[in-house]
Amino acid sequence: MKIIDGKALAVQMQADLKVKVEKLSEKGVVPGLVVILLGEDPASQVYVRNKERTAQRLGINSKVVRLPDQTSESELLALIDQYNQDEQWNGILVQLPLPAHISEEKVLLAIDPKKDVDGFHPMNMGRLWAGNPVMVPSTPAGIMAMFKHYDVDLSGKRAVVIGRSNIVGKPIAQLMMMANATVTIAHSRSKNLSELTKAADILVVAIGVAKFVTADMVKKGAVVIDVGMDRDENGKLCGDVDFDSVKEVASLITPVPGGVGPMTITMLMEQTIRSAEMSENNNSYSSNK
Ligand SMILES: Nc1nc(=O)c2c([nH]1)NC[C@@H]1CN(c3ccc(C(=O)N[C@@H](CCC(=O)O)C(=O)O)cc3)C=[N+]21
Ligand SMILES: [Mg+2]
Question: How is the subunit organization of this protein annotated in UniProt (predicted)?
Fold first, then answer.
């Protein structure tokens, strides 16, 4: 068993990103990321602070707009429009989840797809599913970067994703399919779940249930990626995977914390920088294809 050190990989990739930002800044293009956060949810506060700190460390201009929970939908939409128009900001991120009185769909549609560094706008989701990704959700992008760095070849492999969310489950399934894996998406209504997971060469878990995946559900030698950010019975941060038992079965496994989380932040920075590069190249908003 080997542990995937997401923290170390993040540090290494961020060193390269810092050089990129310096080069862009010399040309007068300073990447700018604005994060909009509604309410006081403590977990969201931590993530947003991490994003802000990392952006600043890389020389990215960053701003966090903290708004009260009761902010109206129209106020939020007006604010997004203001940042859409302002060239100084090439990345706009609205922290999810949003309060119940605000339509997530309306908010995500309001963000200029060119500035949608989360890759959650339907235009960016559609381009991903069409096989021409431009902005890719950062957690899935971070997982793919881990596969690359740790030489995990997906071609022809059986990959199982548990979780069907738009921000992790669906996009990571598509990215692995693009890398020629045979992908199954399982979820809370799937029957005989451990039958599916036991067949997986690659297992990605994103369901939000602490230590849900146990050793008996995992094939010997599997690669296990844990996207969970949960609390155990003692209130300690843990993932969706029972790390202590599953690590004895897996060939490669991500810890929580120090696995997927730091990579998520790193890929968000990378996309912010790419967005700045696109705006420099005459607003070219296109994939590499
Ligand atoms: N519009 C939007 N975009 C997001 O990308 C987004 C979001 N909303 N809402 C919430 C989720 C969650 N997310 C995390 C980012 C970093 C860590 C992270 O840094 N985790 C650290 C530990 C953090 C801690 O100590 O709590 C680690 O795993 O080592 C975790 C989770 C981004 N999200
Ligand atoms: Mg789900």
Answer: Homodimer.
